[in-house]
Each structure stands twice: as C-alpha cells, then as structure tokens.
Amino acid sequence: MIDNEHKQFSEPAMIDNEHKQFSEPAMIDEQRPTDENDGFTTTAHAENQFSTNENYPQVYVALGSNVGRRLHHLARGVDALSQLAVDGLVRCSAVYETSPVGYLNQGPFLNMVASLSVTLSAHELLFKLLDIETSAGRVRTVQNGPRTLDLDILLFGSQTIQDANLQVPHPRMLTRAFVLCPLADLEPQLMLPGGRSVQSVADELSAEGGIHYVGRFW
Q1: What contacts 69, CB < 8 A, 6 or more positions away?
Q2: Cα–Cα dist 41/87, whole Å
Q3: 154 by DSSP, 3-state: which?
Q4: Which of 16, 95, 101, 203 could form a disulfide with 214 if both were Cys (CB 3.0 to 4.6 A apart)?
C-alpha cells in the first residue's frame, strides 16, 4: 500500500508513446466517439491540459469499461469528470486494452487514467463517481465482473484515507498494469514505496503481458 503523505508530484513530462514497450494494439470494436458514430461528443478540454491551481488537491481517477461501446463509456466518464474539475480541465492518459483480472469470464477492458483538480472532498468525489457509474448503466451483480463504466480514485492529493467506504491510495494499484501503465503516461517519475518510479513498475508489469496500447483520444 502506498503511503501518500510524503508524495511529491512533479510537472508532467511530455509523453512520446512511440517508446512504449507494449505489444501491438489489439483490434477494438469502437471508433473515436463522435456525433456521427454514437451520438455522443465529449466536452472535456483537450488532452494534457491541466489546472496549476495548487489550492486544490490533484486527483487521479482510473476509468475502465468492458461492456457495449467501451470507448463511448470512457468518453462519458471523461466528460463527467470535466464537470467536476476546477476550470473543467482534465489530463488524460492514452487508452489501453487489458485482459480481465479476478473474474476472468468476461471480455477485455479499455482502461485509462485521468487527472484533475477538484474542490470536493474525497468522499464527496467518491459519491459523485458512483452516480456517474450508475448513469452509465453500471449494475453490480458479480464482484469484479463486467461493467459499462468503472471509476476508481487512485490518489487524492497527499491524503491517506482508510475507512469502510474509501481507501486512498487505491490498495491494489501497485499490482495492476492497467492502472500503472496509464498512470505512467501522466506521472512517470512519481516515486512508489521502495524507491521505484511509476514508470519502472509499469514497465515490469507490462512485460507480463495482457495489456495493449490502443491510442490517445483526449
């Protein structure tokens, strides 16, 4: 588990996805969301824009979908996050296709990470994210099962939270390529316990397979 009390977040590096060591992208069943193909257009600001207002906590949220129009659901998630963000600014990682973890009898996921500053408390944000998931049609019937949209708080500023409703930093993020690979797009030099960077752990996890770089959409 990460102790985030002493984390120092640096300015994001410019990302060059050509150097990625992931396998060739798998074919996916969606195109980039537009009015022409699914009737939904995200209103979030362009990729890699971000608020520099240090008065608000910087939050990292993991997004995932493996039901229906997966990219469409991610677009809805990004747009909804932009409604919660200071100045409407959200930084987005690339999108990755990943094999399911835990419950294996389901289709592959599209995953990404978004970063934003918020005026909400961590618990207020949690309940907002649950509402967004419900609006996207998520139904919880099987633990770790298929979902239209999954939104998880990974990091909330430098806060460490442990209660019945919320654990921050996310307790399983260090073992999940589908979290750390997109997080490395945004914060490659963020140091994890043991003195290793997000990028180095992401590279190690990606070498185990099951994750494919798809592309940037925001």
Answers
A1: 30, 38
A2: 19
A3: strand
A4: 95
pTM of the complete model: 0.77
pLDDT tens per residue, range 83-110 = 999 999 999 999 999 999 877 788 999 9
Please give the Cα distance from 150 to 138 (Å, whole number).
8
Question: How does pLDDT run across 177-214, given as a tens digit for each residue?
Answer: 999 999 999 999 987 766 789 999 999 999 999 999 99
Alpha-carbon distance of 22 to 209, in angstroms, equals 8
Task: Give the whole-angstrom CA distance, residue 103 versus residue 93.
Answer: 25
Closest CA to 149 of 104, 114, 188: 114
